Amino acid sequence: MSDVHRFAWQGWEIATPSEWDPVRLEGDFDGGTVLLADLNGPRLGVRWRRFACDGKSARHAERALRDEVGTLAAAEAIPFTLSGDWFSCLLYTEPKPPGRDVFVGVSNASNRLLQVACHVKRRDDALKQVITHVRDASEDDEQPWSVFDLWCRVPRSLRLASHKLLAGDLSLSFASVGKPAKQLTIRQVGVAGLALQRSSIEQWLRRQQSTRAKHYRAAKAQDEIELTTTDGRTLMGVRGTMTRRRRFFFMRSLPRELLTLALHDEARDRLVIVQSNHEEMARKVAETVGVAREEQDVVRPK
Amino acid sequence: MWFARSKSRKKQPSREDALDAKPLRSSAAELRPTGDGGAKLVVQLRTPTRFAWLLRMPAGATKTFELDAIGVFVWEQCDGKTSVQQIIRKLAKRYNLGLRQAEVPTVQFLQMLGRKGLIGLSKDAEEGTTDEHG
After folding, report:
1. Looking at the domain assignment, is residue B90 inside a domain?
2. What is the least distance, in Å, from the CA of B68 to any CA of chain A?
3. For chain B, what is the radius of gyration of the CA atoms?
4. Contact assessment for residue A96 and residue A76, using Cβ atoms and an 8 Å cutoff
5. Furthest CA-CA distance within chain B
6. Which fold has domain A143-294?
7. In whole angstroms, what is the distance from residue A259 CA to residue A216 CA?
8. Does the interface predicted TM-score (ipTM) exceed 0.90?
């Protein structure tokens, strides 16, 4: 793999060639699938599911592999050792490509079974290179999220509520499970140079606020802010607040106030918009947007 | 039976074929740059030959399309030598986008240009021959 980037989703983190992008993202933390493809077609499929902690992880892994490649092929799978908290790992390599190489393993951190299938056209070590860097980050205080060129770190207590990944406009929305309910939306618009030609950053802020206009009233005042990311970049922008409309006083599930930050990341030529009901969290997350890109150079499979 | 004969269907190009196709811009379109990095694409309108007496077009009537910087970039790449795949890669590199993020708008934009008759897609195109494609 010449150029590698990180893909992080629902606590999983893998290193893939930079030409592989997600084309299908389904499920939640407990179970789901991801399909990565390059311009020529599907390359990598990732499936995960949580199972009861019954001490039968090896059996779950064997069954998953059998379901994927069949009984005869599953018998040819070899045990595979991964660094970290992994066990019951099996690797099946297609003897006569084209076909698919399959890895199955159980993560002790989240008690989830991970299944990775790589479509191989000729004999190569693409899957081995991908799984060498697979990581279950669900136990970290801050979970990494990396999809297309949106990278950020979000507190573990937040779960992905929805995502909208349009070309040039990526958005992830999170919500906490317990109380007090926390909400967070991260949006990244690229290319900022062009986006700011059409509308000013204040207008982008207003536009983001208008998505919640049914329940919230935006304050007229907008303050200028400046944030420094964890890797030292400076983000300039504006900050606006919204207050819950009085007629919705009975809707206690809606936070009373929402904060929106619209920031211009000049170094990456991206517009970063963060909306949350928790100012400190919003600022902390905004400071991590785009940081993983620099970290990705550390992960470079041989 | 002749009346039941189905029309011969054109074979749909595969994804590889579509990505290997080389778009060629129409020689009838004129690009007029605006100050902000974008441009206006001006096309001369032609009077339809069939109902010319009914649908009279004023002489020199034109249709204008407004392109932003990315649109201009893609338009300039439609030279009949650069394939769709190469355009996507160039766009992704220039604007620091993922390939998939660059692919979607590029393909949609090229489809739109094709529908308007502003480009033709062929495997081995030469400049200035897209009028009959349109």
Report:
1. yes
2. 8
3. 18
4. no
5. 62
6. Jelly Rolls (2.60.120)
7. 11
8. no
DSSP string, A31-74: EEEEEEEETTEEEEEEEEEE---SS-HHHHHHHHHHHHH-HHHH
Distance CA A246, CA A249 (A): 5
Long-range pairs for A164-168 at CB < 8 Å and ≥24 separation? A165/A22, A165/A25, A167/B97, A167/B100, A167/B101, A167/B102, A167/B103, A167/B104, A167/B105, A168/B97, A168/B101, A168/B105
| Contact check, Cβ <8 Å, A168/B105 | yes
Structural domain includes residue B76: yes
The Cα A38–Cα B100 span in angstroms is: 8
Q: Are A291 and A153 in contact (CB under 8 A)?
A: yes
**CATH code (residue B72):** 3.90.930.60
How far is it, in rounded angstroms, from Cα A4 to Cα A59? 33
> B69: distance to nearest CA of chain A, Å?
8
Q: Which residues of B37-72 are buried (b: 16+ CB within 10 A; e: fewer)?
A: ebbebebeeeeeeeeeeeeeeeeeeeeebebbbbbb
Please indicate whether, in this complex, the C-beta atoms of A18 and B105 are within 8 angstroms of each other. no
* pTM of the complete model: 0.84
Q: Structural domain boundaries of chain A?
A: 4-139, 143-294
The two three-digit tokens of residue B113, written as one number = 């240009």
Residue of A nearest to B37 (CA): A194
Q: Which residues pair with A103 in a beta bridge?
A: A91, A116
pLDDT at B55: 72
Instruction: State how many domains chain B has.
Output: 1
CA atoms within 13 A on the CB side of B66: 4
Q: What is the mean pLDDT of chain B?
A: 82
Spell out the residues 6+ positions from residue A246 whose beta carbon is closer than 8 angstroms to its own.
none
Query: Before A255, cis peptide (omega within 30)?
Result: no
When mean pLDDT is compared across A104-113, A168-177, A257-266, B119-128, the lowest value belongs to B119-128
Of B16, B85, B98, the CB nearest to A148: B98
* CA proximity to A281, closest of A164, A135, A141: A141
Classified by CATH at the fold level, domain A4-139 comes out as Protein Transport Mog1p; Chain A (3.40.1000)
For B39, list phi and psi in degrees, rounded to 5: -160, 165
pLDDT of residue B50: 72
Domain range for B38: 15-49+59-122
Does B6 reside within a domain?
Answer: no
Question: CA–CA separation, B116 vs B98, rounded Å?
Answer: 28
Q: Is residue B134 part of a domain?
A: no
Confidence of residue A84 (pLDDT cuts 50, 70, 90): confident
